[in-house]
Amino acid sequence: MRSSKRLAAGALAAALGVTTLAACGGSDGKKASGGSGGKTVTLVSHDSFNASDPVLKAFTAETGYTVKVLKSGDAGAALNQEILTKGSPRGDVFFGVDNTLLSRALDNGIFTPYEAKGLDRVAADVQLDKDKHRVTPIDTGDICVNYDKKYFADKKLSPPRSFDDLIKPEYKDLLVTENVATSSPGLGFMLGSVATYGDDRWQDYWKKLKANGVKVVDGWEQAYNTDFSGSAGGKKAKGDRPLVVSYASSPPAEVIYADPKPAEAPTGVATGTCFRQTEFAGLLKGAKNEAGGKALLDFLISKKFQEDMPLQMFVDPVAKDAALPAEFTKYGAKITESTTVAPDKIAKNRDQWVKTWSSLVLK
Fold first, then answer.
1. Which residues are CB-contacts of 189 (< 8 A; sequence separation ≥ 6)?
2. Which of the two residues, 8 and 128, has the higher pLDDT score?
């Protein structure tokens, strides 16, 4: 992932910086008593990691471990730093590598295998390293086109539902997306087109999308909070694009952060345009507190953390027994047909795909 992470974790959620947090203790559930790594566990993460105080305090009371969160920019930059410090990591656990970067992390051997306790509660389709357990799946999210409900109601025009719809004449000059080379949602949207049209046809799709007036900006913040007419920020900025590449969790966030709260979300999701992201965490090779790191991985897939996570980072839990908050089910879209691309295929082709996309769309 390259730039803005996702809606609530970027512009709308409070940044934590480098914080000392509570976390779970030893794998036997007893309080940590120091050991070779002491009572502090360092979690290296992208800037969007967040967790609620009540959950964190419960971890301290239960285990005695504390977690120092070291935020390191976007996920790509954070991962690159861990690759450069392989064997002498800055922390014990890394959180935030997703399926677009997973092969890079695994190929560089920065993780020590560990099968987290409770992994049997995690959906099998997100366990992309299930044979070796070098990483543990933590959350999923869907990059999708969002639309401004009022615009389409006023125009008496049905909003688009699929990739194919976006190249139709009635949606000309309506879509804003992010630069694939500089933006996580931009990259995910492009990968969704690769999954939809295949290696030989996605380029033609982007030629048609460009001819249909797609606007490209550097990152999510500008696209969503300036150019998109449906968001609170876009309304203030007088944005004129009623379609934007964002997240399936963006509509609930528009309600949760609004004052007063509207009866329904002002934005909707084109459910046939989605690309599924899965985020992982792993025990860093050479971790000073390996026992604490293993306990932290256990915690990250615990029901307590998984149910806290959606309203902290606006992502979906991977644990099958974790319930979604009411705001997600009431205001969000249920994505049943999200596309994906195998991590090894992304790793093999990502750089060339970005170069090809740039030559087609930006010139």
1. 143, 145, 177, 178, 180, 245, 273, 275
2. 128
Query: Is the CA virtual torsion 299, 304, 306, 309 positive or negative?
Result: negative
Query: Which whole-number Å values give the CA distances from 163 to 45, 190, 266, in the listed order?
Result: 32, 11, 22
- Lowest mean pLDDT of 101-105, 162-166, 207-211, name the range: 101-105
Residues 300, 136: Cα–Cα separation, whole Å: 9
Give residue 181's pLDDT: 87
C-beta separation of 67 from 21 below 8 A: yes
C-alpha–C-alpha distance, residues 231 and 148, integer Å: 8
A 10 A CB-CB count for 7 gives: 29
Asked if 49 and 16 touch (Cβ cutoff 8 Å), the reply is yes
Task: Give pLDDT, residue 31.
Answer: 54
Q: Where are the beta strands (DSSP E) in 260-305?
A: 267-284
Q: How many helices (H) and strands (E) does the chain have?
A: 13, 11
Cα separation of 148 and 243, whole Å? 7
3-state secondary structure of 140: strand
Phi first, then psi, for residue 96 (nearest 5°) are 120, 0
**Of 263, 282, 329, nearest in space to 104 by CA:** 282
Dihedral angle of Cα 103, 106, 107, 110, to the nearest 10 degrees: 140
**Structure-token pair, residue 348:** 């093999």
Sequence length of the chain is: 363
Position 71 pLDDT exceeds 80: yes
Q: How far is CA 126 from CA 66, 132, 137, 270, in A?
A: 28, 14, 6, 23
Q: What is the DSSP string of 318-358?
A: -BTTPPPPHHHHHHS---SS-B---HHHHHHHHHHHHHHHH
**CB distance 268 to 146 below 8 Å:** yes
